[in-house]
Specification:
This protein is α/β, with parallel strands linked by helices. Helices cover 33% and strands 16% of the residues. Strand 2 (84-88), helix 5 and strand 3 (129-133) form a beta-alpha-beta unit. It starts with 32 loop residues before the first helix and ends with a helix.
């Protein structure tokens, strides 16, 4: 597995993208006075600046799942000024969601999560275009949904869906920011075989045996944990698009809020991986 340069820029992949992973040539009109004020705290960061903020304004990101992780991801991407955010989810807002899915409130109960998300983001940052997709993400629609996006963020809790998202991201040659949570512990990493990292299937090739990976509904989850991991996921996406710092490429960060501990583990690519073996070996 090849590492990441200090600058934090990814490889060019297989889709004609430039060093940041964003399709070249996409431009936006100059920032207005209002936008300059809104994004001033980004612009003064030397790692982002005006060019980085313009990259965010021109970026197209896909968020799979508008639940516990998707909620903070969507909020922070919208606040950061990501130009276009597509969000896919088939679920409706329920009362049990409100303990952790801070994107929603009681006025959204019974409504599709993607529509509630679009409404909330519209109030947070009207300059962001939100594309709600109210359906399940699956093999029949994965290619069409991922096509044209620069980066995918996956916060789903289904092993089958995660594998489907992973394959679609690998096929499209785009980075996949992956997060997961359970009870008191969460993890985040970036899968990008075109940039030299493993893919999700390299690390988790087989479905967990029944009972070993209970859902949040079964095992519970502390409400603040999705906010922590979701914010980390958004930060990774921002770093990748702007070229700032060193994203978690080929490295998984695990955070335990019960004991206030974090650790990192390095992930290894499998040459025989049926999903990314040919891509990473080319």
């Amino acid at each position: 597995m090849t590492g990441m340069a200090k600058s934090g820029r990814t490889g060019s992949g297989r889709t004609g993208r430039d060093a940041s992973g964003i399709a070249p040539g996409r431009s936006r009109p100059p920032m207005t006075t209002q936008e300059l004020e809104r994004y001033a705290r980004h612009i003064v960061l030397r790692e982002i600046g005006g060019p980085g903020q313009n990259r965010l304004r021109g970026a197209r990101m896909l968020v799979v799942g508008a639940g516990g992780l998707g909620s903070p991801v969507l909020e922070y991407l919208a606040a950061a000024g990501v130009g276009t955010i597509s969000v896919i989810d088939h679920d409706i807002v329920s009362l049990s969601n409100l303990q952790r899915q801070v994107l929603f409130d009681e006025t959204h109960l019974g409504r599709p999560k993607v529509e509630a998300a679009r409404e909330r983001i519209g109030r947070l940052n009207p300059g962001v275009r939100v594309q709600p997709i109210e359906c399940r993400f699956g093999p029949d629609n994965a290619r069409a949904i991922v096509d044209g996006t620069d980066l995918v963020l996956d916060g789903t809790d289904s092993f089958e869906t995660r594998h489907c998202v992973n394959r679609a991201a690998v096929d499209a040659g785009v980075p996949l920011v992956s997060g997961a949570i359970s009870q008191w512990e969460g993890q985040v990493t970036v899968f990008f075989p075109a940039g030299g990292t493993p893919c999700y299937a390299c690390v988790f090739p087989d479905a967990p045996t029944p009972g070993t990976a209970p859902s949040c509904a079964e095992a519970g989850v502390i409400g603040a944990l999705p906010g922590i991991i979701g914010a980390m996921m958004a930060a990774e996406a921002i770093k990748i698009v702007t070229g700032a710092g060193t994203p978690l490429l080929g490295v998984m960060l695990i955070h335990d809020v019960l004991f206030g501990e974090s650790r990192k583990i390095r992930l290894t690519r499998r040459d025989e991986c049926p999903v990314c073996g040919e891509v990473a070996g080319s």
